[in-house]
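Researcher: Predict the fold of thioredoxin-dependent peroxiredoxin.
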Amino acid sequence: MAVVIDKPVTDFEAQATSGQTFSLDALKGKQVVIYFYPKDSTPGCTTEGQGFRDQYAAFKAANTEVFGVSRDSVKSHENFKAKQAFPFELISDKDEAVCQLFDVIKLKKLYGKEYLGVDRSTFLIDSQGVLRQEWRGVKVPGHVDAVLAAAQALNKA
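Model: Structure tokens for thioredoxin-dependent peroxiredoxin follow.
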């Protein structure tokens, strides 16, 4: 079942960079931003990741951990993370289990061809594991600032 605003997010585990296994339950007590993006090292995904990188200290100050998710391999993520100096981990979702949980696989079109791809989306989960806000069909400019403002407001609530 897909995530729902104001409901707890089902715990999940997934492989992440730095040899880590991501577990949502292990992050209780901290807010969590999970952003889904289509593909490592592509222009929009790089710009979005750089935005989260550049605001990372502000997210940490708001008791918020940031994680990126795509269907790329851990090896691809390691290269992308190193090249962009991302201070946060990237989660590999090759089997699309996390994408399905957050309902981000959508029918897309490119050059007239339809395919199933990741809809750029971001989710803000509170310190108790409850989904508080979601952004779907994200346009990159200004997005990270909006997520940061929401994380800061939630941290003060």
